[in-house]
Each structure stands twice: as structure tokens, then as C-alpha cells.
Automatic annotation (TrEMBL), chain A:
A GO term from the CC aspect: plasma membrane
MF annotations from Gene Ontology: transmembrane transporter activity
Localization per Swiss-Prot or TrEMBL: Cell membrane
Lipid bilayer topology: Multi-pass membrane protein
Keywords: Amino-acid transport, Cell membrane, Membrane, Transmembrane, Transmembrane helix, Transport
Protein name: Branched-chain amino acid ABC transporter permease
TrEMBL record, chain C:
Domain ABC transporter: 8-239
Annotated protein name in UniProt: ABC transporter ATP-binding protein
PANTHER family associated with the record: CONSERVED COMPONENT OF ABC TRANSPORTER FOR NATURAL AMINO ACIDS-RELATED (PTHR45772), HIGH-AFFINITY BRANCHED-CHAIN AMINO ACID TRANSPORT ATP-BINDING PROTEIN (PTHR45772:SF8)
Keyword Transport assigned: yes
Native species: Sporolactobacillus terrae
Keyword set includes ATP-binding: yes
Keywords: ATP-binding, Nucleotide-binding, Transport
SMART domains (alphabetical): AAA
Gene Ontology molecular function: any one: ATP binding
InterPro entries listed in its UniProt record: AAA+_ATPase, ABC_AA/LPS_Transport, ABC_transporter-like_ATP-bd, P-loop_NTPase
One Gene Ontology CC term in the entry: plasma membrane
Gene3D superfamilies the record matches: P-loop containing nucleotide triphosphate hydrolases (3.40.50.300)
Length: 289, 342, 240
């Protein structure tokens, strides 16, 4: 039982952390960032290189967040800002960005970096060892969701960005600078991807294709979650976490992944707006009787 | 059919003439290279059809490409009878079409559209890559063929018609003739009754329903046709190299057709054809020259193309040519590319 | 009134968006050959009713009958084939195609191949936009786009034609021509149900009227009866 719980925490954290940056950008801006994996990869590189240079891991992680956030802001100003509202073009362009980033990193740093060792060691419960670091990742995922919730509900930025998300035109007419909101949102999405990369850097091999492993789980989580960048990933991370943990334990990793996809297709078939759509429907019904 | 004189059609005729005389001009190695490029053109055309014509955005063309490639391999290696290879080709294309139909049925009748089709098909591609990658063990035998995990399947037989084995130039001309047939079909289809309905769906799905068209049915049908074309591409790829690996399903093969069609001009099959061939030629030349900057240049070209020439590089050149040489000013979507007026 | 004469019937139809009752418990009968108006101020639920007749929205409750047949669960395109056609409030034309191409899209589905061309010409003539046939639809005036859309609806050979504000945004002259066109179509045997909130236009045209207010049926009757109904006058003057 502890094993399964631990696996669930692991999967949940992985899904949430993979998806959160993508979800924020897609949910708020309707931009599909195919370079999401490369943003994560960039985060992993910054963290790994900084740590090797003698900076403490925690500070390195922070450096990744800031660094990738700034990088995201530059990408937005140069490229993405010209494509607001053009979802499909954004796919092509961000794929171009991912090509440049992946190959650029390969040229600069070669095919792989020396991996950091996973910090914090492990604890033993009931005869099994559990990595403390991975448990910490789970806690981080939860804290991150709470922080984002606060950002989007309690701040002026959150208010404006939600207005822009629901109806950009009306938001503009009320004096909201939607372009600035979008730029900031993209930058936050990038920073979150950087955080994810930095957090997972000590747990797997860091190479230019580091982001590839995050791509499918992140897309599935966003699809199943729907448009709302908070409710969506939280719910779908939970559900998908249970599904993949169950399938992993019974039939192995591949079926865990296949299960994710099947759930994604079923969810889209039954409720095209994902969990966000469902929650919205229920809450409207409740509030208006 | 009355073919209209415009830049696109002249270029199309010249391209095909060039393709036909190409083997006379160059060595066997270059011919096989072009055969590979042409095989990949089918993949781009399949996307032109479903995305450019019908507005269905898909990353799933690699799914049909890969499945049919694997099917052909398993079928021909198991049968062991080389004269049955054409049957493998035909069945492979049909299976690709049927799978696309089923997938399309689930999506379009379920009201899944636009970007969600792209996301679902992307995930499907990635899952299939993962699946094929872990099929190295002995339990993954289909008949006498091991799926082979990351190494894929090798020594897949070439196409044999009667006692004649298609390799080298004969394979090249086989691919070229089928490409020409598909190309003419697509040009005709655009202005056929169904083709016009398809354009209407692309322009305004809801409105087209209100004109009495069964939109999900037509979408599924076009998606199936696209699946069959992608399958043809996959099987030609297998015939060209006699091998297939899970990278046929990879992220790169899922996204490259999208990028090629978008950058070339998605509503224009000649543009898709030309840009695909140029891309493969360019990337091969660059990687042969050992330049590690090839992918970076490619990425930058894409970004610049989408930002500054959103209608596609080649398609915009065609348009400029029309204005310059033929004083063609009609802006109608159907006319602009027009082989004839409706 | 014989039972067969009812072409369209809504029975206890309602549409709720979340808790908002856009349309609530509506009963309407439209007789074959009628020229019937749905009248009501903004937000009365008129367009929502049209969308339910067309199958764009599914009613939350109640049923829609067409020609004695329950069509509540039919898809839009199947309803079109049964003989219901619509011109929506917001123009639903293909802006980047020409007038001729727009018409062809609509006509080819219901006309044999050899007759498509002549049928398009006939409809363009009827709609007074024949000279514009090679014009890009985006370049047409609002009024011309409305006519084109009526033409596309007619191409589906409807028994019942739904027109959502057929004269919206038109000048007085265009409005008159639109009214004349509608009357002419009705005389040819097409049953017409239209939405408007301009009393003068309705008076000129409609035979029967159903008045809606806040999603509910408020009154019904001939135009004369409605005109003299004090409550109706009140909601129009905003006293309700």
C-alpha cells in the first residue's frame, strides 16, 4: 500500500510538474508551445551547470526559474507576441524554436552532461526505501498549485488575465493591457517549465533530448484537464496519476502510458472541454440553482 | 478538365517533367535519393488534403505512415511469397485508411475539432513510438516476424510485380507515376462536388451543417483518404530502405509534415510537393556536408516563414507570379489556386 | 384548422444555460403556408428558439415536431434535408469566396449536376444580386450579404424558412425590397417564420405573431390583436 501511494505521489508530481507550464500558456493564451520540452531541458541544463560550478542546488533551481523565465520573455517578445490568437501557427513556430534550442544546446554542450546525484537520500518505511527527494517533488507540486491559485485569484494580474482569457476584447475595452498580460503569462509558463527541468535534473540523464520524456504526459494532462490552467491539471493529474499508477503496477510502464492516452481520448469524446468544462458546468448549476 | 494557365500549374508541369528526365541526368544514388524524397511527398500531400483543404489539423499522419509500414513488413515477411508484395501494398493502404476512418469517426462524431484533433493525434503518435520501442522481446512475434524494438524490422522485401522486382530506376518511376496520379487526383478533387463541400467545411463548419451537409461524415471520409495517402508514404519508405524502425512514429515524423505544409503553403498541393522535396534535399545536403547548424537553419527558416509569410513561402511566390505575369487579381480562395473556375 | 396543416410545432420547449432559463416552456404552432413572426425585445430567447428548431442547440426539455415528425434528436443536416432552412442573425456566408461560389456550395447539394448553374442564376436573379456574382463576399454590403444568405437557404429547397432579423442593418429601401422578397417567397408556398423587433416591419409582413419576453411566451395572435394588446405595448415601452 505504501508502495502504491509512493508511486502515485511520484506519478502525480511528474504529471503536474510536466504540465503546469504548458497548461498556463495554453489555458491563458491558447498558444500550444511545442518547445515546452526544450524549456524544461534548458532548466535542467542551467541547474546542472550551476550546481557543478559550486552553487548550492536550491539556488541553482532558482536560477533556472529566473533564467528560463527571461528566455521565455525574449521568445515571446520576438516571436510569440506576433501570433496571439493564431493557435495553429503557434504550433509550427514553437516547433521551429524547439529545433533551434535542441540543436543549439547540442552544439554548445555536446550530447550529454554529467548527471547530478539525487539529493536527500531515502527513508525506510515498512522495509521499503523511499526517496525523500521524490516525496519533496510531490510536496512541491502541491505547493506550486496553491501558489498559482493565489496568483490567479488574489492578485490584480490574476484578475486581468482571467478577464483576458474569457474575453480579450472586453478586457481590452476595460483598459487591460492584454499584450502585457500575455507576455507575462508566457514568461511564467516558461519559468515553470524551467523549474520542472531543474527539479528533475538530478533524477535522470541530462541531454539535449531531456524534454522529450515530458512531452506526452504534459500534453495528455492538459488535454484531459481542459482550458483552466489550475483546476484542469490538478484534477487530471489526480485521475491520470491513479490510472497510470494502477496500470504501471499491474502491467508495466508501457500500459501505464497507453492508459493515459486512452483516458485522454475518452475524456475528449465524453467532455471535450475536459475537467475544467465539467467543473464550470457544475459550479454554474450550483450557483444559479 | 480545363487547366488554367497560372504560375502554379506551369511550375507543376515543369517539376514533373524534371522528375521524369532526372534519372537520365544523374547517377543511380541520386535517383534513389529523390525516390526517398518523393515517398515523403505523399505524407505532406496527405496533410495538405486534410488540413489545407478540409481544415483538420493533425499530427497523426505519422501514425498511419508507421502502422502501414509495419503492416507491409509483417505481411510480406510472413507470407514469404514475393509475388504477394503488391497485395501487401494495397492492404496496407486500405488498413491505414480504415484506421483513420475509425479514429476520425470517434473524433468528428464526438464533436472533437481544431486543436484538440492535433493534441489527440500527437499523443497517439508518441504512444505508438513507445509501444514499438519496447517490442524487442520474443513475445512480440507476429507469425515469424519479431517487431524488433528500437532496431525495428530489416530485410523487408521490395515490391515484385510478376517476376519483375522494383528496385533502382524502376522503383523510382513507380513512385513517380503514383505521385503524378495522386497529384492529378488532388487537383481534380479540389473542384469536385465533394471538394467544394470540403472547402466549405474548412471555411465555416457550423454553417456548412446548416446547408444540409453531414459534416462529421465528410470529415471522417477526408481523414480516411489522408490516412490512406500517409500509408502509401509509409510503405514506399519501407520499400525504399527495406527497413522500418519506431522512429517512423517519432515526434519528428509527426511534426515535420505539419511544418513543411505550413511553411510551403498549406492550401496548395504544388507548394507542399515542392517544399517537401526542397526540404529533404536541403537537409540532406547540409547534413552530408557535416554541418551541425542544419537544424538550426531549418528552425529559423520556419519561424521566419510563419511570421512573415503566413500563407506559405511557395504559395506566396505563386501568388506573386500570377500577379506579375497573368494579371490575376481574383482573391477568392478557390480561384486563386484555380485550375478552372467553378 | 386541420391537424395536417401544422408544419412546425414546439411542445413545452425549454433551454437552460446553467441556471439561466433562456427559453422556458414554450409552445408554438406554425401552420403550413403561414408568415409568422417571433416578436420580442433583446434577450427574449428568439434566436435560441431558432437554434433549437435547427438542431444547433439541444432543448433542455420539450420536443420539436416538423411535419408531425419528432425531430428533437435529429442533427442539423438531417433537418435541412427534411425541409428546414435558416438565415442566421450573424452573417453565415463564406467571406473569402465569391457570391457564385457561395451559392454553388448551397445549390449543388440539392440540385442535379446539370442544373446547378441555371439554379444558381435563378436564385441570384431572384435576390437581385446577379451582377455581383464574381464579387468576393467580404466586399458586399451588409444587406447584400443578408440576401445572399437567404438565397443559400432557399437553395436547400425548404418547406419552412427561418429568418433571423432579415432586415437588420438595412436602409429603408433595402428593407422594403426584403419585405417584398419575403412576401413573394411565401406566396410561392414556403412557410416563413421570422424574428424581428421592429414593429413597423412586422406589421407590414406578418400574418400571425408570437410575442416572447424573458424566455417565455407572452402573447400570440394576429398582428392586429398583438398591436392592440396593452401588455405588449408596455414591454416595448419598457414599463414591464
Amino acid at each position: 500500500m505504501e508502495d502504491l501511494l509512493y508511486q502515485f505521489m511520484n506519478n502525480f508530481a511528474f504529471l503536474i510538474l510536466s504540465a503546469i507550464g504548458l497548461a498556463v500558456i495554453f489555458g491563458m493564451m491558447k498558444i500550444i508551445n511545442l518547445a515546452h520540452g526544450e524549456f524544461i531541458m534548458l532548466g535542467a541544463y542551467i541547474a546542472t551547470l550551476a550546481t557543478k560550478a559550486g552553487i548550492p542546488l536550491l539556488l541553482s533551481i532558482l536560477l533556472s526559474v529566473v533564467g528560463v523565465g527571461i528566455f521565455g520573455l525574449i521568445v515571446d517578445r520576438l516571436i510569440i507576441s506576433r501570433l496571439y490568437g493564431r493557435t495553429l501557427d503557434s504550433v509550427v513556430v514553437t516547433w521551429g524554436v524547439s529545433l533551434v534550442m535542441q540543436q543549439g544546446i547540442l552544439i554548445l554542450f555536446g550530447p550529454s552532461l554529467e548527471t547530478l546525484s539525487t539529493p536527500l537520500g531515502s527513508i525506510s518505511i515498512g522495509g521499503s526505501d523511499y526517496s525523500l527527494y521524490r516525496i519533496l517533488l510531490f510536496v512541491t507540486a502541491i505547493v506550486l498549485l496553491i501558489l498559482l491559485y493565489l496568483l490567479f485569484t488574489k492578485t490584480t494580474f490574476g484578475l486581468h488575465s482571467r478577464a483576458a482569457m474569457q474575453n480579450a476584447e472586453i478586457a481590452r475595452s476595460m483598459g487591460v493591457n492584454t499584450n502585457r498580460i500575455y507576455s507575462f503569462t508566457f514568461s511564467i509558463g516558461a519559468a515553470l517549465a524551467g523549474l520542472t527541468g531543474a527539479l528533475y535534473a538530478p533524477t535522470m540523464a541530462v541531454s539535449p533530448t531531456f524534454g522529450g520524456g515530458f512531452l506526452m504526459p504534459s500534453f495528455v494532462t492538459v488535454i484531459v484537464g481542459g482550458a483552466n490552467p489550475l483546476i484542469g491539471p490538478s484534477l487530471s493529474g489526480g485521475v491520470l496519476g491513479v490510472v497510470s499508477t494502477g496500470l504501471d503496477a499491474t502491467w508495466g510502464t508501457f500500459f501505464g502510458r497507453l492508459g493515459l492516452l486512452v483516458v485522454a481520448i475518452l475524456v475528449i469524446r465524453i467532455m471535450p472541454l475536459g475537467f475544467s468544462g465539467l467543473v464550470e458546468k457544475l459550479s454554474v448549476r450550483k450557483s444559479r440553482g | 478538365m480545363l487547366v488554367k494557365l497560372n504560375t502554379e500549374n506551369i511550375v507543376a508541369v515543369l517539376i514533373f517533367l524534371f522528375f521524369f528526365v532526372y534519372p537520365v541526368l544523374v547517377d543511380a544514388y541520386s535517383v534513389m535519393n529523390l525516390a526517398y524524397f518523393l515517398s515523403m511527398v505523399f505524407l505532406s500531400l496527405s496533410l495538405s488534403l486534410i488540413w489545407g483543404y478540409c481544415g483538420i489539423f493533425s499530427f497523426g499522419q505519422a501514425v498511419f505512415f508507421g502502422i502501414s509500414g509495419y503492416f507491409y513488413a509483417v505481411f510480406t515477411l510472413n507470407s514469404g511469397i514475393t509475388t504477394l508484395t503488391p497485395l501487401g501494398l494495397i492492404l496496407g493502404v486500405l488498413i491505414g485508411g480504415v484506421i483513420a476512418w475509425i479514429l476520425g469517426y470517434f473524433m468528428f462524431y464526438g464533436g472533437v475539432n481544431d486543436v484538440f484533433v492535433g493534441l489527440i493525434t500527437l499523443c497517439l503518435t508518441l504512444v505508438l513510438e513507445t509501444f514499438m520501442g519496447q517490442t524487442a522481446g520474443d513475445q512480440w512475434m507476429i507469425g515469424q516476424v519479431n517487431l524488433g524494438g528500437f532496431n525495428g524490422i530489416n530485410s523487408i522485401p521490395s515490391l515484385q510485380i510478376g517476376s519483375f522486382i522494383l528496385t533502382g530506376n524502376s522503383f523510382y518511376y513507380f513512385v513517380l507515376l503514383i505521385l503524378l496520379a495522386v497529384f492529378i487526383f488532388l487537383k481534380w478533387f479540389e473542384f469536385s462536388k465533394l471538394g467544394i463541400a470540403v472547402v466549405a467545411i474548412r471555411e465555416n463548419r457550423e454553417r456548412t451543417k446548416l446547408l444540409g451537409y453531414n459534416v462529421p461524415f465528410i470529415q471522417s471520409l477526408v481523414f480516411a483518404m489522408g490516412g490512406a495517402l500517409a500509408s502509401l508514404s509509409g510503405i514506399f519508405y519501407v520499400l525504399w530502405g527495406n527497413y522500418i524502425t519506431p522512429s517512423a512514429f517519432g515526434l519528428a515524423s509527426a511534426t515535420i509534415p505539419v511544418v513543411l505544409v505550413a511553411a510551403g503553403g498549406r492550401k496548395n498541393v504544388t507548394a507542399a510537393l515542392l517544399f517537401t522535396v526542397l526540404y529533404y534535399w536541403f537537409s540532406q545536403t547540409l547534413s552530408a556536408s557535416g554541418s551541425e547548424y542544419a537544424l538550426i537553419i531549418l528552425g529559423l527558416v520556419l519561424i521566419v516563414a510563419i511570421l512573415f509569410v503566413p500563407n506559405g513561402l511557395i504559395a506566396s511566390l505563386f501568388h506573386a507570379g500570377d500577379q506579375l505575369f497573368f494579371r490575376e487579381h481574383s482573391k477568392s480562395l478557390l480561384r486563386k489556386k484555380g485550375a478552372k473556375t467553378l | 384548422m386541420s391537424k395536417e396543416a401544422v408544419l412546425l410545432e414546439l411542445r413545452h420547449v425549454g433551454k437552460y444555460f446553467g441556471g439561466l432559463r433562456a427559453v422556458d416552456d414554450i409552445n408554438i404552432k406554425v401552420e403550413s403556408g403561414d408568415l409568422h413572426c417571433l416578436l420580442g425585445p433583446n434577450g427574449a430567447g428568439k434566436s435560441t428558439i431558432f437554434k433549437m428548431i435547427m438542431g444547433i442547440y439541444k432543448p433542455t426539455n420539450g420536443s420539436v415536431f416538423f411535419n408531425q415528425r419528432n425531430v428533437t434528436h435529429l442533427k442539423s443536416w438531417d433537418r435541412v434535408k427534411l425541409g428546414i432552412s435558416i438565415k442566421m442573425q450573424t452573417p453565415g456566408v463564406f467571406g473569402e469566396l465569391t457570391v457564385y461560389e457561395n451559392m454553388k456550395i448551397a445549390v449543388q447539394h440539392f440540385t442535379r449536376h446539370a442544373e446547378v448553374k441555371s439554379e444558381v442564376s435563378r436564385l441570384l436573379e431572384l435576390l437581385m444580386i446577379r451582377d455581383l456574382k464574381d464579387e468576393l463576399v467580404d466586399n458586399l454590403s451588409h444587406g447584400q450579404q443578408q440576401w445572399l444568405e437567404i438565397g443559400m437557404a432557399l437553395a436547400c429547397k425548404p418547406k419552412l424558412l427561418l429568418l433571423d432579423e432579415p432586415a437588420a442593418g438595412m436602409g429603408p429601401e433595402e428593407t422594403d425590397r426584403t419585405a417584398e422578397l419575403i412576401r413573394q417567397l411565401n406566396q410561392q408556398g414556403i412557410t416563413i417564420l421570422f424574428i424581428d423587433h421592429d414593429m413597423a416591419f412586422v406589421k407590414k409582413l406578418a400574418r400571425n405573431t408570437t410575442v416572447l419576453h424573458l424566455g417565455r411566451k407572452f402573447a400570440e395572435g394576429t398582428v392586429e390583436e398583438i398591436e392592440t394588446n396593452q401588455q405588449v405595448v408596455d414591454i416595448y415601452l419598457g414599463k414591464s
